[in-house]
Amino acid sequence: MSNAKPKVAFYWCSSCGGCEESIVDLAEDILKVVAAVDIVFWPVALDFKKKDVEAMPDGSIAVSFINGAVRLSEQEEMVKLLRRKSQLVVAHGACSHLGGIPGLGNFWNKETIFRRAYHTTPSTQNPDKIVPLEKTVLDGKELTLPRFFDTVYALNQVIDVDYYLPGCAPPRDLILSAVGAILEGKLPAKGAVLSPNKSLCDDCDRNDSKPEKLVIKEIKRPWEIMLDPEKCFLAQGVICMGPATRTGCNERCIEANMPCRGCFGPTDQVHDQGAKFLSALASILDTNDEKEIDKIVQSISDPAGTFYRFSLPTSILQRRRMEAIK
Amino acid sequence: MVNLTIDGKKVQIEEGKTILQAAAKCEIKIPTLCYHPVVEAYGACRVCMVEVTVRGKTDLVTACNTKVQEGLDVQTGSERVLKARRLNVEMLMARAPAAEPVQELAKALGIEKTRFEIKDPQEKCILCGLCVRACETIVGASAISFIERGTERKVMPPFGEPSEACIGCTACAYFCPTGAITYEDKYGRKVIHTELHLGPTTAIRVPIRQAVPMVPLIDTEACIHFKTGECKVCTKVCDREAINHDMQDETLEVEVGTIILASGFKPFDAKRIPAYGYGHFPNVITALEFERLVNASGPTGGKIKLADGTEPKAVGIIHCVGSRDENYNEYCSRVCCMYSLKFAHLIKEKTSADVYDFYIDMRCFGKGYEEFYHRLLHEGTKFIRGRVSDITDMAMTQREEGKLIIRVEDTLLGTVRRIPVDMVILATGLEPSIDHNQLAKIFNISCSQDTFFLERHPKLAPVSTFSDGIYLAGACQAPRDIPDTVAQAGGAAAEALALADKGTFALEPVTAEIDEDLCAGCQLCVNLCPFTAITYDKEKGISVVNDALCKGCGTCVAACPSGASHQKHFRDSQIFAEIEGIFVV
Which of A251, B44, B213, B404 is the most exposed place for a label (fewest CB within 10 A)? Predict the structure, then answer.
């Protein structure tokens, strides 16, 4: 096997498909990847089945890139299978890295999510109150569906993960350099996030525009003001997660005059991105008056979704307490 | 020097001086009207006529603006002089019959009646133009001038309308020799107590009799020189040449090892409580104003008087104004109870007025204070326990007519009372004198909730701060009275000396550290640091902690969004390990 090209697998769990797109977005560079490796499993693009993977010897896949959070029993089964068959597992993208946007489902549980999705949304018409069941008997035949967990998991909460490619979705250059590093065997220590361990401000062009005293009196949402394309968002009163977010994304959002939403997750030394940013934000509010502080904080629309947009499952909180959900 | 003779007296005087000045030197009085030492003489009124003889030639000249000459012989009272002066005064009498100085001059010259026609018996202006010259050359405003010609000539602002050029300095009225110019407050304000010490005064003055150092200051807001660039009359009259209008505030840099902060307090601004009517009712005054009023060197010589100059028959003293009040300051200002008692005592001593003391709690905590309170009880001061709701002049009964009515809930009687008084003294509380938050930032120290400076430990280090070498004395740390301040200041001085003597101090081991490799230079920490220990290194693009200034408070550690700042011995990993340790057991 020594002359054979290394085998690579791609798999998607609970994700939007953007991470798959990020592979396709490599454009002509994907040919270099294809030339260097043998893709043995890629459900979105190639017709391999689970049984094909099962048939492979354990550890025969050099690296599996898995995107998406783990939300269903099927996903759990598949990632465990891939872990067994792979030498390396890379969590590809924010959802598998941190839990991602699907991870915000951890403010609810299966029951409340189903109630909302199948009964109470204004666009739902479900007079028979049909909900997906794990087992259904139809015409005497039993049909099964995967189990829907109460909690969304990041990949490393289900299986052992070797590396993390951050981002929603990971940028092209990070993917290429990760693939390159794997092929050349120039890998950092296990568990590393394959992006620089500094916050976004380090690379942000707007960092120099920060006023001498950065303070916030009023919090604005991006649509509420004309955003100055050169000024630090925080200095404009707009929440930018940049200070609490790992860099490496090439400031894609900032370049588009939108504040950072935090998809790269925290730096290595931070345990909880949301809490850390809250602590930083609280410290730049320009008042000591409790009522005024309250007013400013109240003006943050959807604080949990703002500060934990990508990282709730891997935060210290992980999820809302089940008994608190009705 | 020039030698001359005046009325037979030999005088020697510097060249360039006038005959009038030479006469003054040998104490010969020449009458004047339009002359003022600080305004250049013009010789308009011509009552200072003297007869001069030089080199055999005799002539009549005005003394005020004729320069001395060598060998000049001056006659100030010769028949020719008196004749001319009488004629001039007679003409002035006809011009300004109501001008008292002219009448006096006429009397002195033996004139009973003018031979000339009197146009306006009420006229006072002699058209000397001193006011016009003062307004132009002293004030620099040129707001008034002569208008019309001949018999119609008069002094007016342009077109006889109030002029925008007029700065309201009233110098014209001051210089007018005949009182022809008067001024009035266009708002019709009457003298109220606040003005007794803060109201009309001169722009150059010694602030109070007890001022240290005892030297005058120039109020640049009020000084005409700083408004128009002219005047400088004070420099003309100060023969010590001690007045310098060009002095500037100086910033001095002094290198020191220890610092004692004693920035003191300012009284609570009573205007912040509109219900007490301070600034509206002239007889509602603050404690400091009352203090000034009873001061023997004060505006009334220590007599307690109402705004209209009469003595009050009833006085109310309201405690806790701006103190112990959720709306203003929650803390007790400590000194007000005792000074209020002193006031009550002084009023009883100096007048026969009834004194009402409105208090929440009597806080007579010091040595001899309780005894003083008891003395007041025996003296007959009426103590009413309750916070005053408001002060009004709306009388409901005959008895309240023309009085200030204090409305208060008497909590001991359990009823709302209306107490009519003539004067109300507001016992205003104490507040930090200047912006303490800003000052704290400069000195790397902290403020407590009430914005007074925070001591390192309320019991064990009451004069120290969190910055080594910086100590606190007096009311900047908390409201306190004189004995406490003196004691604390002594403590602070001793601490400062002890440290200065030792020359070194030990640094805090638990400080924050910013990891160069992790810091992204977001600068959020820089302004947070209460000790200004963090600076932003623009070149490296990172924030740096100064170990000597850092006190290890951990603010930056909590705020650092990228986790680059950590506190020695309190790293996240250590804290998490501690938490895990708790759950293991």
Answer: B213
